[in-house]
Every structure is written in structure tokens, then in C-alpha cells.
């Protein structure tokens, strides 16, 4: 009874095997209070170095009550007419949300479908399957209900915790006119960096 109540308010969740995991609310609270957490420190170092070298916006997020919530960012000055504030929730059709829906326990996705905020379609299920297979999500840079960039695409990669459940998403905005070679290089760097932090999380927790 207690676990059901905790699950209802987002403090715990269940994976596909029925095992209980920290819920969305716990992950959000923990991430926002994690300045001393070594995993978060490494994630922030990764986006800062990546953003400083590329001059592209990069964000960290965790899953909140209604979608991915920004918990940290690197913003290239004067690049876009929008500020990526900590606490902002990404739209459910963004690359970041699709990444989380691909890797979070099925109970989380079912709750989203039940809310009616985004429709579960064959096309969407196929897209989530593709994201799980390739290990990252990409979509138009839709960063709020009112803003979508026509010159950048959003690429989101996962950081997994000890239970192989996604804990943090890294989202970078890639210029649409980027060459294939440069895109592959920068995407590979984000994937490698996230994988390294995931390995650290598996050892540390």
C-alpha cells in the first residue's frame, strides 16, 4: 500500500521487470541538490567543455512530473533569443523528452500516454525503438511551447545510473548546416562522454 502511494506521487517507479526504482520526483530533487555529486560534476564538466569549444548551447536535464526538467546549461552568448533556465520543462515532443521516454521504465511512458499530453502512435513507438537502438535522440530544436529553431537541431544522449535506467539527459543544439563529418565527430564525443560517466555511475552507486 505504501509503495503504491509513493508510486502515485512520483517518489518511486517500476521497471519492466517490476523492480522498484527512484521515481521522477526523487530524481529531480536529488539532481537539483547534487552540486557535490561526482556524476553531476562530471556531467557539468562535459557540457561546459563541449559548449565552450563549439559555442553551441548544451543542457542537462532529469525527468520531472511533466517531462524533462533543465538542471544545468552552457549557453553561447547572443546565439538564440531564449534563455535555458534551470527548472524549465522541455515539451514532450522534443528530442530530450523522446530520449527519456525511450529509456525510462515503461510505467513512466504509460503515465504520459494516459495524460493525453502526447499521443501514443505507431510512428511514435517506432521512433522510440529507433532511439533505443541508436543510443540517442534527434529532433527539431523545440525548446518550449513557443520556440522552435529553424537553424538548429537538438541531439540528446543519455547518462545511465547503476540500474541501467536513464538518470540524466544531455541535449546539445547542432547547427543544421553542419557537415556530416563534423556532426559525426561531435555526436561521437557526446556519446563517448556520456558512456564514460555512465560507467562511473555504475561503479559509484
Keywords, separated by commas or semicolons:
globular, five-stranded antiparallel sheet, 205 residues, alpha+beta, 7 strands
Write a concise synopsis of the structure shown.
This protein is 44% helix and 25% strand. The protein has 205 residues and is α+β, with helices and mostly antiparallel strands. 35% of the residues are buried.
List the SSEs and their pairings.
Layout: H1 2-8, E1 12-14, E2 20-22, H2 24-32, H3 38-54, E3 58-63, E4 68-74, H4 95-103, H5 106-115, H6 122-134, E5 137-144, E6 147-160, E7 166-175, H7 180-204
Antiparallel strand pairs: 1-2, 3-4, 3-7, 5-6, 6-7
Helix pairs in contact: 3-7, 4-6
Order of helices and strands: HEEHHEEHHHEEEH
Distance between the termini: 27 Å
Radius of gyration: 16 Å
| Helix-strand category | alpha+beta
Net shape? globular
Low-confidence blocks of residues: none
Sequence of strands across the biggest β-sheet = 4-3-7-6-5
Number of helices: 7
What share of the residues lie within helices? Answer: 40-55%
**Main beta-sheet strand count, sense and barrel state:** 5 strands, antiparallel
Name the quaternary structure: single chain
Strand content: 15-25%
Q: Would you count the extended β strands for me? A: 7
The pLDDT mean sits at 81
Amino acid at each position: 500500500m505504501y509503495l503504491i502511494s509513493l508510486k502515485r506521487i512520483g517518489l518511486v517507479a517500476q521497471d519492466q521487470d517490476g523492480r522498484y526504482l527512484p521515481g521522477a520526483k526523487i530524481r529531480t530533487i536529488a539532481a537539483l541538490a547534487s552540486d557535490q555529486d561526482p556524476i553531476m560534476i562530471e556531467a557539468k564538466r562535459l557540457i561546459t567543455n563541449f559548449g565552450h569549444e563549439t559555442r553551441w548551447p548544451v543542457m542537462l536535464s532529469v525527468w520531472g512530473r511533466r517531462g524533462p526538467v533543465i538542471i544545468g546549461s552552457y549557453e553561447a552568448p547572443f546565439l538564440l533569443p531564449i534563455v535555458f533556465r534551470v527548472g524549465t520543462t522541455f515539451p514532450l515532443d522534443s528530442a530530450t523528452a523522446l530520449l527519456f521516454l525511450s529509456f525510462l521504465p515503461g510505467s513512466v511512458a504509460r503515465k504520459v500516454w494516459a495524460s493525453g499530453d502526447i499521443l501514443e502512435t505507431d510512428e511514435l513507438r517506432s521512433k522510440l525503438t529507433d532511439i533505443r537502438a541508436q543510443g540517442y535522440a534527434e529532433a527539431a530544436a523545440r525548446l518550449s511551447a513557443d520556440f522552435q529553431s529553424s537553424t538548429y537541431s537538438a541531439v540528446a544522449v543519455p547518462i545511465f545510473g547503476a540500474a541501467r535506467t536513464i538518470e540524466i539527459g544531455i541535449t546539445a543544439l547542432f547547427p543544421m548546416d553542419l557537415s556530416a563529418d563534423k556532426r559525426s565527430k561531435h555526436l561521437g564525443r557526446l556519446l563517448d562522454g556520456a558512456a564514460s560517466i555512465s560507467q562511473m555511475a555504475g561503479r559509484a552507486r
